[in-house]
């Protein structure tokens, strides 16, 4: 990737986003860092400028707020230097589905799906026009596993995977790389913010290991990168089975098992 490409990272004030910022700064890229906590963003920006000599701009935004989201969209549309979007900002949710209140539902969907989709949609036409660039969407293995007990959060992450796969099919022929990254439990603040104790989890990946693995997938131009999945064939088999369904599910007549017996 051209080192003059600027990378815009959402959720850059901590965890996975801050680690992406550090790694891309080391690669010599200028950065635009987006999150709500300006003090933390400023401190990170100052450190990255000093350590790596790159230009780092801070864009304070609450991506669940219309005006802030619109400002980041505008920046992605207008700034031709930005060639990569790391669509990372997200929040988790705890509790059973029946315990979710309207406000919490709105917030998690607004951040994990609406903002992510709108930012991708803001930058994609310009990248497609230029025939280059990349969009990285951070999903989660929870989006593959309703059994993990995070129904609402997992649903937003299933959305991220579907969106990324569709975007990849549409945009890769136009020169734009789209990657879905699916971490499993990773040591960041997301757990505490959602009121969960990370120490209760059996397996937790360190954030540096997660982002470095995601970047190996990025450099290989993988469409879906699942750092904790050791046997890559398992994903290939799952996705292959899904693709195998496509011709089967496009039928004009209901399947035999759904037909009413004649006379009833
Ligand atoms: N850690 C894990 O176990 C896993 C994480 N993920 C995903 O990784 C992504 C990053 O999370 P992670 O680094 O773990 O968690 P963190 O809580 O450390 O980071 C979340 C980031 O999102 C920002 N953010 C939160 N709310 C908003 C908002 N309303 N507007 C703008 N920015 C916001 C936070 O900054 P600020 O508070 O300053 O706004 C912070 O920079 C998320 O999408 C998450 O779902 C996926 C699988 C596993
Ligand atoms: N962020 C985690 C849940 O809170 C996950 O996706 O595993």
UniProtKB/TrEMBL annotation:
Q: Which Pfam families match?
A: adh_short
Q: What is its EC number?
A: 1.1.1.298, 1.1.1.381
Q: Could you tell me which CDD domains the record lists for this protein?
A: SDR_c
GO: which molecular function terms?
Answer: 3-hydroxypropionate dehydrogenase (NADP+) activity
Quote the catalytic activity from the record: 3-hydroxypropanoate + NADP(+) = 3-oxopropanoate + NADPH + H(+); L-allo-threonine + NADP(+) = aminoacetone + CO2 + NADPH
Q: What class of enzyme is it?
A: oxidoreductase
Looking at the record, the residues that make up the Ketoreductase domain are 5-188
Report the domain of life of the source organism. Answer: Bacteria
Record key words, sorted: Oxidoreductase
The free-text function statement in the UniProt record for this protein reads:
NADP-dependent dehydrogenase with broad substrate specificity acting on 3-hydroxy acids. Catalyzes the NADP-dependent oxidation of L-allo-threonine to L-2-amino-3-keto-butyrate, which is spontaneously decarboxylated into aminoacetone. Also acts on D-threonine, L-serine, D-serine, D-3-hydroxyisobutyrate, L-3-hydroxyisobutyrate, D-glycerate and L-glycerate. Able to catalyze the reduction of the malonic semialdehyde to 3-hydroxypropionic acid.
Similarity field? Belongs to the short-chain dehydrogenases/reductases (SDR) family.
Listed name of the protein: NADP-dependent 3-hydroxy acid dehydrogenase YdfG
């Amino acid at each position: 990737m051209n080192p003059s490409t600027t990378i815009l990272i959402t959720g850059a004030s901590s965890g996975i986003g801050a680690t992406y910022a550090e790694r891309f700064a080391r690669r010599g890229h200028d950065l635009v860092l987006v999150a709500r906590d300006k003090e933390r963003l400023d401190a990170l920006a100052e450190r990255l400028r000093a350590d790596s000599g790159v230009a780092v701009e801070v864009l304070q935004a609450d991506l669940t707020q219309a005006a802030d989201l619109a400002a980041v969209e505008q920046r992605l549309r207008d700034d031709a230097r930005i060639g990569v979007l790391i669509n990372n900002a997200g929040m988790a949710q705890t509790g059973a589905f029946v315990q979710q209140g309207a406000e919490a539902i709105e917030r998690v969907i607004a951040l994990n799906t609406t903002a992510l989709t709108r930012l991708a949609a803001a930058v994609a036409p310009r990248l497609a026009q230029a025939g280059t660039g990349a969009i990285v969407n951070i999903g989660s293995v929870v989006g593959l596993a309703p059994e993990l007990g995070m129904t609402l959060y997992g649903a937003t992450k299933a959305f991220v995977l579907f969106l990324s796969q569709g975007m990849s099919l549409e945009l890769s022929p136009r020169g734009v790389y789209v990657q879905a990254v699916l971490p499993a439990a990773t040591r960041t603040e997301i757990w505490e913010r959602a009121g969960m104790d990370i120490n209760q989890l059996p397996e937790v990946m360190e954030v540096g290991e997660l982002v470095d693995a995601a970047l190996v997938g990025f450099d290989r131009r993988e469409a879906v990168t699942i750092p904790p999945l050791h046997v890559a064939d398992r994903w290939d088999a799952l996705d292959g089975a899904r693709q195998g369904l496509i011709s089967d599910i496009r039928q004009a007549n209901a399947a035999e098992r759904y037909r009413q017996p004649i006379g009833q």
